[in-house]
Specification:
It comes from Tropilaelaps mercedesae. Keywords: Disulfide bond, Membrane, Signal, Transmembrane, Transmembrane helix. The protein is mainly beta. The termini are far apart.
């Protein structure tokens, strides 16, 4: 009967208590006390928190009735006033203890939001099962907040009711029906979790800020028999704040903070759009206070617009280390948090950041703990952040704030594709063969490998790499061992790898790997220059890498780590495809790297150009370059070269077309500025040891409108490409040439008649059908003297060495000295039309020298060979020593005509010794006075005029009795007779002596052996 009565009384008390919390607008103050005050029996007004606080504040003990409690009450307060409350359970009880408190901000002077500060907390225990799932035992605290502010407030009509019946007993988790026994929240509000255990010390109080005007605090403790040695303690303060937004929470009025738009039918999901135009921040509920338990907040940030040619990226970060505080689930001794930095090893709450708008996207970051967050950057215009709050946890100042920014990058930037693919193909066949590679400019998900595969356009391509920066965070700075636990970088030379596999070597040099304590070769100085090309080149092998083949792979691997890196792993490198291909055949290591040989037996025509290898130019570290291209044809061939492009900038040289030689010629310009800087292309035709210029080009940077044709006379030609004094910024884009070549049948020069009689000679050549050719007809001949003699040449024509000496369309002789490339003379000759028309009589020497009816006088030009002017008979410096004198004569026919040249072998009448003395040449017997040269005796008075003045054929020399010749002949005959007689007498005398010599008749015997 007593149990039944007790049960009825308890039910009635529960009903009255529930009805006592009537919902009213704002009850009228009958007593005159404020809403935030309690009226004593004596009429005094005290703060609501002083009721049943253990102190007689009224003076009549009406605020401390017997068995009172401050539980199950509604608290109001004035703005700015901090009110302490200590919740204590009754000393003697056997039933469960449930304490519910409602904190209501009534508006105006009573504020609009609530602040709860927990100074001491010890309610139940938090225990984890084998799955690391935490639950509250022996009591808990729950905070609830409605999803919207309400104009109604809760007020207490009764006081003194301290206990009511609970169905939960024993050491079991408190069930949801019991914990929500006094929950008056709306139906769409989430079922919040619980706090239990001890207060975790974070260096300050644990504060809760409501987002609306109504907060319910509920403490549930099971019956006392199940408490064992666990104690209960809860001490907090409450304070109300006005509706005016604070700068900390909502920002400045001039620069307001955008906290996103709340998603429909959700507790804390928010959507952010176009944060490039506003200041967006992601905040946990109730920030800057701690957030509640047992929910998941989803924050979606998207950028809807971006400038043309760019793509948006969302950047999340937090530099303030006090604005991220997520409990890791681990507590150090003393009740403090064991994690002082962000980590991905989370047993409780966790923040996940997805690279996309849903949770199926790649996870960019997963963290908890306290500290600053380095930039987390999305690969695209959308990102998602999830804050997951577990159902049970110790009381901790859990909060989160992230700054949101929008960054616009080029659409062709490197980025990880959806699905985690991070492979980039860099094709060398594209127009741009150089550029930058770098770690994608966004956060890379863990366990991702990004590969950069370089593929040359041919087998001759090489990949040149130099790194501008490299960073991997070292988490074990105290150790010298490399762990490679954050990220690594590998350089894989695929061509070298194939060689390694074929050779079965035990050492693989094809792969280079770098981690946190090692780094690739860095050419950091290049960062300071435009296009990352430094004034001091990044040379091989100190500052850069060069592949052995056309394929190279660079891999960057990102490993999963429990620690959130303070700075993301990254690298930047400049790459360039180097074209090592060169036409022709390499001439071997004894020649330069770009000396090439072309033979007509291999190819009759083809294309060749200056090298495209950057290492041969200034940007690759070479200040000077000289490349020679040798063309060798058969004896019956000549060579044509078509220059299609010339890029030869220089201020020290100019080229022009020489009408005299019908060739392009260079003229050097004396200048102090850039004296050592020159670029030139020279083409020479060599016959034996004589090199004749075919063309010289410099100081041209324009595209040729029409290819320049150069044609040789012989079958051996050399083209030289020379650049000196290049800067570190210049390469094959600044200097070079392009050309084609063709071996063709040589011009027939057999129509000429050459006569040589002892010490003289004559050459007559007739040029026909010249108008059918697109280049002048060229023929050449060597004229060689006898040992220790010189050449005197007489041409039919006049001197054309001076400028404009020859009329346009005039045939020419060009004379070269052996071993010297520049011509020593140019002779203009109009030729003989009769010869061109085939008058054979004109070709005969008799007709040429006929005294009867002599032809009209023709202009003549004569000259000595170059060695004639060497008085000491020493060979000029740089020329080979030889005992014979050689001259190369080249005929240039631009129209039909005849070419004539005569030559004599001459000697000097006087010789100058090395000491400077002048001596008479005893071998010089017949001298041409006007030439100061001696001719051979057989040419003297031979019926042909050899001296220009005819001195050798004058009558006084040729028609007198030859006494001298007769005397010489007689003397020679007499000497012969004397020698013959003397020889006969000697022979006869010896024969007589031999016959009269006595023959010995005794022979000496050898003595016998003794």
């Amino acid at each position: 009967m007593d149990w039944a009565l007790a049960y009825v009384l308890l039910i009635a008390a529960w009903a009255s208590a529930k009805n006592g919390f009537a919902l009213v607008e704002r009850p009228p103050s009958i007593s005159g006390c404020k809403l935030s005050e309690f009226q004593c029996d004596n009429g005094r007004c005290i703060a609501l928190n002083k009721f049943c606080d253990g102190t007689d504040d009224c003076g009549d003990t009406s605020d401390e009735p017997m068995g009172c409690t401050n539980c199950n009450r509604t608290f109001f307060g004035e703005v700015g006033t901090k009110n302490p409350i200590r919740i204590a359970e009754p000393f003697q009880r056997n039933l469960p203890f449930v304490c519910t408190m409602h904190f209501v901000a009534a508006g105006a002077e009573f504020g609009d939001i609530i602040e709860l500060t927990f100074l001491n907390f010890q309610v139940g225990t938090l225990e984890s099962d084998r799955n690391q799932s935490a639950s509250c035992y022996n009591g808990h605290l729950a905070l609830t907040e409605p999803t919207a502010s309400s104009p109604i407030v809760r007020t207490s009509q009764t006081r003194g009711f301290t206990q009511f019946l609970s169905a939960a007993t024993g050491r079991q988790p408190v069930t949801a029906p019991l914990s929500s026994f006094y929950d008056s929240s709306e139906l769409d509000q989430p079922e919040f979790g619980r706090f239990c255990g001890d207060l975790i010390n974070t260096g300050g109080p644990v504060i809760f800020f409501s987002e609306r005007n109504n907060v319910t605090l509920q403490v549930v403790i099971p019956n006392r028999a199940s408490l064992h040695s666990y104690s209960f303690n809860l001490y907090l303060t409450y304070r109300f704040h006005p509706s005016k937004p604070s700068r900390t929470r909502y920002g400045d009025s001039k620069d307001p903070i955008d906290l996103g738009v709340r998603a429909p039918e959700s507790f804390c999901d928010r959507i952010f759009e176009n944060c490039d135009r506003k200041k967006c921040k992601i905040r946990s509920p109730n920030f800057p206070g701690f957030y509640l338990r047992n929910f998941t907040c989803r924050f979606t940030i998207r950028q809807l617009t971006s400038p043309q040619g760019t793509q948006a990226q969302i950047v999340l970060s937090q530099r303030n280390e006090y604005k991220i505080s997520i409990y890791t689930g681990r507590t150090a001794p003393g009740g403090t948090s064991s994690q002082r930095a962000l980590t991905s090893d989370c047993l409780g709450d966790v923040v996940r950041i997805y690279d996309g708008g849903n949770s199926q996207a790649s996870v960019l970051s997963r963290f908890c703990g306290s500290g600053s967050l380095t930039e987390v950057v999305s690969s695209g215009p959308e990102i998602r952040v999830e804050l997951y709050s577990v159902g049970a946890q110790q009381l901790y100042a859990s909060k989160l704030e992230l700054d949101v920014e929008v960054r616009f990058v080029k659409t062709d930037d490197f980025r990880v594709e959806p699905g985690g693919k991070c492979t980039f193909e860099i094709d060398g066949s594209r127009a741009e063969r150089r550029g930058l590679i770098y770690t994608p400019n966004h956060t890379i998900p863990p366990n991702t490998t990004c590969s950069f595969h370089f593929r040359g356009r041919g087998v001759h391509d090489r990949v040149w790499i130099y790194f501008l920066s490299y960073f991997v965070e070292d988490k074990q700075r105290w150790s010298s061992a490399e762990k490679c636990d954050v990220a690594s970088l590998e350089i894989v030379d695929l061509s070298a790898q194939e060689l390694f596999q074929d050779a079965n070597s035990s050492i693989d040099h094809s792969t280079r790997r770098f981690c946190e304590k090692s780094s690739p070769r860095i050419c950091a100085r290049a960062v300071e220059y435009p296009q990352f090309i430094p004034l001091r080149p990044c040379r091989l092998p100190d500052d850069s890498y060069l592949s052995t083949g056309s394929d190279l792979v660079i891999r960057q691997k990102f490993f999963k780590s429990s620690d959130i890196p303070l700075r993301r792993s990254s690298f930047m490198a400049r790459y360039e495809f180097v074209d090592t291909e060169q036409a022709g055949v390499d001439m071997g290591p004894h020649h330069g790297p770009c000396h090439r040989h072309f033979q007509s037996s291999t190819s009759k025509f083809g294309h060749f150009a200056s090298p495209k290898n950057v290492f041969m130019y200034g940007r690759g570290g070479s200040e000077n370059i000289t490349c020679s291209y040798y063309f060798s044809g058969m004896a019956s061939e000549k060579l044509r070269i078509y220059l299609t492009n010339l890029n030869l900038p220089t201020t020290q040289c100019t080229h022009f077309y020489d009408e005299a030689t019908q060739r392009y010629t260079c003229r050097m310009v004396a200048s102090r500025a850039n004296a050592a800087k020159i670029s030139v292309v020279q083409v020479t035709d060599h016959w034996g040891e004589t090199y004749t210029p075919m063309g010289c080009f410099c100081n041209t940077t324009s595209q040729l409108r029409k290819p320049i044709l150069i044609e040789s006379v012989g079958n051996n030609v050399t083209l030289s490409f020379t650049v000196q004094g290049m800067s570190a910024l210049e390469d094959f884009n600044n200097y070079g040439f392009e050309a084609t070549y063709e071996f063709r049948p040589a011009t027939s020069c057999e129509g000429g008649t050459a006569r040589r009689n002892g010490s003289e000679g004559e050459l007559t050549f007739v040029a026909k059908d010249v108008n059918t050719q697109d280049t002048p007809l060229r023929c050449r001949w060597y004229i060689e003297s006898s040992p220790k003699k010189y050449l005197y040449l007489k041409f039919q024509g006049h001197d054309g060495s001076r400028a404009a000496s020859c009329n346009p369309g005039t045939n020419k002789f060009v004379v070269y000295a052996d071993g010297i490339s520049d011509p020593v003379a140019v002779v203009c000759t109009d030729g003989d039309s009769n010869l061109a028309n085939g008058d054979a009589k004109s070709l005969t020497t008799d007709a040429f020298h006929a005294a009867k009816d002599p032809p009209p006088p023709e202009p003549q030009f004569d000259l000595f060979s170059l060695n004639w002017y060497n008085e000491s008979e020493r060979q000029p410096r740089g020329l080979p020593r030889r005992n014979v004198d050689r001259v190369l004569v080249e005929a240039i026919a631009v129209k039909a005509g005849a070419f004539k040249v005569r030559w004599l072998e001459v000697t000097k009448p006087f010789l100058r010794t090395s000491s400077g003395l002048t001596l008479r040449n005893v071998n010089c017997l017949y001298e041409c006075p006007e030439l100061s040269a001696c001719i051979s005796p057989e040419l003297w008075c031979d019926g042909t005029v050899h001296c220009p003045s005819g001195h050798d054929e004058r009558p006084e020399h040729c028609h007198q009795f030859p006494i001298m010749y007769l005397a010489i002949a007689c003397g020679a005959l007499l000497a012969t007779l004397v020698i013959t007689s003397a020889g006969t007498l000697v022979y006869c005398r010896r024969e007589k002596d031999r016959k009269t010599r006595d023959i010995p008749n005794d022979v000496q015997l050898e003595p016998p052996n003794s």
